[in-house]
């Protein structure tokens, strides 16, 4: 008898309108299985969700954990739990290797706990080669599923608890969205809100369009309703999430009454009563409009932070990356943002070591960093992803050269960010308090509108509150301060 239930690479374009109700029924069914397990164990079964990658993955993990808790599992951070699920990222190779390393360690836990179930999901599982590796080398994994059918987790959980076979359910693509399901938020006072899924840009280095699929936008009414529900539940800040939020609703027909631009959606979200701060992630420079700048300018609720991925300052490398803008066009956009929104912090992503990149190309990137004066930049070494065009480029850059160029760039990035941060020393800012400080329990840690962290005296009663703080001392990427 086969030891797998394998529905790998099926296409699912039709999802029942009653899918949410169907999944709630599976939650009730799973409760019975978990209750029986609790009686057998003589204790409450535990569950651990381990998240890799972006904010969208973090949001997905909140849904997975909500279902696990609803059916009767107790949350734990220990990967020795009775149910462990790895929600994976595949943007860079080191993320893949970290997942596989954690899986290897988990196999030892499972040998000691015959009731243990191990699941793996997310972007990495949309790559057939990764699934085949799990099938071949990690036979102890019980459940594998991808990004398109994560809403089916309650159903898949039931199948997993009913069977001792490896369950594999991967969809190549879908054009449906099912969002009205339970979510267990990490923070009671802030939340991500998915506004769209997928990406149509096909940057030559990026695996995302292949694992997340084409762009699919949610109805603006559904987004607003979710924001209203979140505010009613105590949320003060939302982050609107999408691979390229500026493309929101481009997949709607021109005559669709739901078709509004991203700036228009942002403005509608700002009208939600009780919502105090709105963020968004991530815009693409090629689609960044004057309309969006105008909306940010007239809405104080919108966070004074724009993450604007550069990737490279070399026009030739940008062309090979299929980024669809030049160095000069990017700098013109930065100047426009700085002129219209002088209080906005601009952060970015930069890749070093893309095929064909020379030290002169890196000099161009460094030139952009100096001219743009980024408040922070997340620098990455290029990671070859099988299935992307750049993986087949012949002119891969030697590792030693990449490291030298990375170090040169990082030094400039850090100095620029320090200079930008120091400009706020002595000012006062509104800070959303997120936690008691990890290093000093007499302090709390919060985040300014421009996304900079601040540590200042306080206690847990301030968590979730927005308070005015004087920024006393800059420490590079964070401030220490005093409550005003």
Q: What is the element layout, followed by pairings?
A:
Elements: E1 4-6, H1 19-41, E2 46-51, H2 55-70, E3 74-75, E4 83-88, H3 93-112, E5 117-122, H4 128-137, E6 143-145, H5 153-162, E7 166-169, E8 190-194, E9 196-197, H6 208-212, E10 216-217, H7 220-232, E11 237-241, H8 262-270, E12 277-281, H9 290-298, E13 305-307, H10 315-321, H11 327-340, E14 345-352, H12 359-372, E15 376-381, H13 399-422, E16 428-436, E17 443-448, E18 453-457, E19 466-474, E20 478-483
Parallel strand pairs: 1-7, 2-3, 2-4, 4-5, 5-6, 6-7, 8-11, 11-12, 13-14, 14-15, 18-20
Antiparallel strand pairs: 9-10, 16-17, 16-19, 17-18, 19-20
Helix pairs in contact: 1-5, 8-9, 11-12, 12-13
Describe this structure in words.
Strand 11, helix 8 and strand 12 form a beta-alpha-beta unit. This protein has helices spanning 19-41, 55-70, 93-112, 128-137, 153-162, 208-212, 220-232, 262-270, 290-298, 315-321, 327-340, 359-372, 399-422, and strands at residues 4-6, 46-51, 74-75, 83-88, 117-122, 143-145, 166-169, 190-194, 196-197, 216-217, 237-241, 277-281, 305-307, 345-352, 376-381, 428-436, 443-448, 453-457, 466-474, 478-483. Helix 1 (19-41) packs parallel to helix 5 (153-162), helix 8 (262-270) runs parallel beside helix 9 (290-298) and helix 11 runs parallel beside helix 12. It is globular and about 65 Å long. The longest helix has 24 residues, at 399-422. By secondary structure, it is of the alpha/beta class. The chain has four domains: 4-169, Cobalamin-binding domain (Rossmann fold, 3-Layer(aba) Sandwich); 187-303, Transcription Regulator spoIIAA; 310-423, Transcription Regulator spoIIAA, CATH 3.30.750.200; 428-483, OB fold (Dihydrolipoamide Acetyltransferase, E2P) (Beta Barrel). It has 13 helices and 20 strands.
């Amino acid at each position: 008898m086969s030891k797998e239930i394998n529905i790998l690479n099926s296409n699912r374009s039709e999802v029942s309108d009653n899918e949410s109700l169907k999944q709630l029924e599976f939650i009730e069914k799973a409760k019975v299985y978990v209750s029986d397990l609790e009686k057998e164990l003589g204790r409450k079964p535990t569950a651990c969700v381990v998240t890799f990658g972006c904010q969208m993955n973090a949001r997905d993990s909140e849904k997975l954990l909500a279902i696990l808790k609803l059916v009767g599992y107790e949350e734990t951070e220990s990967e020795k739990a009775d149910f462990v699920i790895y929600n994976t990222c595949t943007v860079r190779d080191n993320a893949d290797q970290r997942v596989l390393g954690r899986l290897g360690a988990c196999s030892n836990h499972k040998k000691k706990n015959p009731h243990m179930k191990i699941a793996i999901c997310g972007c990495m599982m949309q790559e057939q080669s990764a699934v085949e590796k799990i099938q071949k080398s990690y036979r102890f994994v019980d459940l594998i599923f991808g990004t398109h059918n994560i809403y089916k987790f309650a159903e898949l959980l039931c199948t997993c608890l009913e069977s001792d076979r490896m369950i594999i359910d991967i969809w190549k693509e879908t054009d449906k969205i099912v969002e009205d399901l339970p979510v267990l938020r990490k923070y009671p006072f802030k939340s991500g809100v998915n506004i769209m899924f997928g990406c149509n840009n096909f940057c030559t280095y990026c695996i995302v369009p292949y694992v997340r699929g084409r762009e699919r936008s949610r109805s603006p009414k559904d987004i607003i309703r979710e924001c209203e529900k979140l505010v009613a539940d105590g949320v003060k800040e939302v982050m609107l999430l999408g691979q390229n939020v500026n493309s929101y609703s481009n997949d709607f027909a021109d005559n669709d009454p739901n078709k509004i631009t991203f700036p228009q959606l942002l403005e509608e979200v700002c009208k939600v009563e009780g919502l105090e701060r709105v963020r968004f992630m991530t815009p693409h420079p090629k689609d960044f409009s004057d309309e969006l700048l105008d909306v940010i300018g007239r809405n104080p609720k919108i966070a004074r932070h724009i993450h604007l991925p550069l990737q490279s300052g070399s026009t030739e490398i940008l062309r090979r990356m299929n980024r669809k803008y030049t160095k000069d066009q990017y700098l013109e956009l930065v100047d426009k943002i700085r002129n219209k929104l002088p209080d906005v912090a601009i952060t970015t992503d930069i890749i070093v070591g893309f095929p064909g990149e020379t030290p002169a190309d890196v000099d161009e990137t460094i030139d952009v960093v100096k001219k743009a004066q980024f408040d922070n930049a997340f620098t990455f070494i290029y990671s070859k992803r099988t299935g992307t065009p750049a993986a087949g480029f012949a002119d891969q850059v030697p590792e030693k050269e990449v490291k030298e160029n990375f170090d040169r760039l990082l030094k400039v990035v850090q100095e620029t960010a320090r200079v930008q941060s120091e400009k706020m020393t002595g000012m006062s800012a509104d800070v959303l308090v997120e936690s008691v400080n990890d290093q000093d329990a007499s302090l709390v840690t919060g985040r300014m509108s421009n996304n900079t962290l601040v540590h200042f005296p306080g206690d847990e009663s301030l968590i979730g509150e927005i308070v005015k703080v004087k920024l006393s001392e800059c420490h590079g990427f964070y401030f220490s301060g005093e409550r005003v």
